[in-house]
Amino acid sequence: MRRHARRHGGQSAQEREDKGARQRKIPAGAKPHACDQCDYRTTRSRLLKEHKRGHTGEKPFVCDQCEYKTCQLSNFARHKRVHTGEKPFLCDQCDYRGSRLSHLTRHKIVHTGERPFSCDQCDYRASLPHLLREHERGHTGEKPFSCDRCDYRACRAALLKEHAKVHTGEKPLACHLCDYRTNRARLLEEHRRVHTGERPFSCHLCDYTAGRLSNLTRHKAVHTDTRPFSCDQCDYRATRAALLKEHKKVHTGEKPFACDQCDYTTNRAPLLREHTRVHTGEKRFSCDACHFKTNRLAQLRSHTERHARESERKRKRAGQEPFACDRARSSNLTRHKGVLSTGASRSYTIGLTPEQPGHSSG
C-alpha cells in the first residue's frame, strides 16, 4: 500500500484524474463524461457520479447533527459550517466573514457600490439579480410565496419566513426597556422610538412627524384624500389595499385572529394585539399631559381630545378664538381638514392669541 501511494507521489484524486485525462490526450475544454438521462456533460467522472444521484434521489452524505442529507460532498462540507460556525472567507476591507465564497462575493458589492442590474419600468437598480427579481414583483403584483396555514402571500421568501412566526408565536427579538417582543427587526427598531421619542419621518405639507414610515404614508392621505381601493359590495373606499382587505371581512364575517387565552376572535390583527393586553395588563399608550395610561390607542386618542376640549373652553373664557378655518369650525381640526376637497384653500389658526398671525397651509 505504501509503495502504491509512493507511486502516485502523494497526489490527490483530482490531480490523478487530471493527469489521466492528459495522458489520454483529451482536448482542452472537452467534456467526455455524459449523463445518459439528460444533456449534462462534465470533465470529471466524479462530478458525473454526483450528478446522477440527482436522478436516482440517492443522498449518501448524511449530517450526524441534524436531518440534512445531500448527494454532493461539496454541499455537505458547506453544511457542516452551519454547526461549527466556521467562516473561512474573509473580506479584505472590513471584519465580515462568510461561510461561503458566494456570500463573500455578494458582500463585497457593499464596498464597491456597484448596482449593475436595472429595472426597465423605474429607476431602481440592484446589486444582485435576485434583488431585481424581487423588486419587479412590485410592478407585476406577483406573490409566489404562500403560507400553508392561511391565505398570506409574499413576493419574497424572507417575508414568508417572518410571517410564519405569526402562527408559531415565536418572538425572538426583545426590547431591553420593556416587555415588548417581536419577530421582526424592523418592528423592534420602530418600537424603540416609543421610548426615545424619535420621529424621523416628517410630512412636507405640514408639521406632522411619525416614528413609523407606514404612519406617514397613511397621514399623507389626509392631504390628497385619494382612496383608490374600493369595495365591490358597498361604497367603502380605502387608501391602502390592506385596509380594503380587512374591510371585506365585514361582509364575509371572517374572524381569523383568535386569542389563545379566551374566546375572543376578530377580523383584524391590530385588534387582537390590543385585546391581548387585557390579559397581560400592559398599558403601552400614555398621555404626555397627565399620568393617564391605557392599552388601547383609541382610548388614548379619546382621552387627549378631552384635554383639547378643556383647553378650548379655557381659551374661550379668556376671549380667544381657539380653532378657526376659512370654511368651517371644528373641535378636531385635523379630522376636519380631511373633508376639504383637494386643492381647496386651507388656512387656520390653533390656539393663537389675537396679536399672533394665523398659520396658513395650502
Automatic annotation (TrEMBL):
PROSITE patterns: ZINC_FINGER_C2H2_2. Residues 1-35, 301-362 are annotated as: Disordered. InterPro entries: Znf_C2H2_sf, Znf_C2H2_type. It comes from the Eukaryota. Residues 33-60, 61-88, 89-116, 117-144, 145-172, 173-200, 201-228, 229-256, 257-284, 285-312 form the C2H2-type domain. It is found in: Nucleus. SUPFAM superfamilies: beta-beta-alpha zinc fingers. The keyword Nucleus applies. GO terms for molecular function: DNA binding; zinc ion binding. GO terms for cellular component: nucleus. Keywords: DNA-binding, Metal-binding, Nucleus, Repeat, Transcription, Transcription regulation, Zinc, Zinc-finger. Residues 302-313 have a biased composition (Basic and acidic residues). The keyword Transcription applies. Belongs to the krueppel C2H2-type zinc-finger protein family. PANTHER family: ZINC FINGER PROTEIN, ZINC FINGER PROTEIN 569-LIKE. This is C2H2-type domain-containing protein.
